Amino acid sequence: MIFEIEFSGHENISSNHKNTLEITKESHLTPRGDCIVGVNANSSCNDLPHELKDKLRSSDAHVSISIRAGDHEFVIRGNGHPDLILTHKDDIVIRKSDFVCPRTLAVKCDKASDLLPRDMVLLLQDPNTKGILSIAVD
To answer: Which of 24, 60, 107, 137 would give a disulfide with 55, using CB separation of 3.0 to 4.6 Å?
Structure first.
């Protein structure tokens, strides 16, 4: 199962956080949101299909998250967790740690927003840029 979420760029995207990566349904972004790589997302954790949530809550779930914008693609691999809540109405957060909250989609991920290629970050700083975040669970 692959679930895709559309989002937009924003002029304040810096993508410098070393532990997390986030997309949000919110339209505004302050410079403090250094893990956010997309705004105006059409889905949040709460909006994910129940079948996907069930797969993400498996202790042996392997998650692949792909972020595409223009000709760029950035792939993150992580894990599901039995304690995932997946109820936040605005955000999706991918974490290198095993911290779980209503915004957490995957834990123990191999990358965070600081590793997003800088040419991709420049593209995402344009509010007219459209991106796709894809979630696949094995």
So the answer is: 137
Cβ burial 52-65 (10 Å sphere, 16+ → b, else e): bbebbbeeebebeb
Question: How far is residue 37 CA from its own chain's centroid?
Answer: 8
- Give the N- to C-terminal CA distance of the chain in Å, as an integer: 8
- Model confidence, pTM: 0.96
26-65 residue pLDDT tens: 999 999 999 999 999 999 999 999 999 999 999 899 999 9
Three-class secondary structure of residue 114 per DSSP? helix
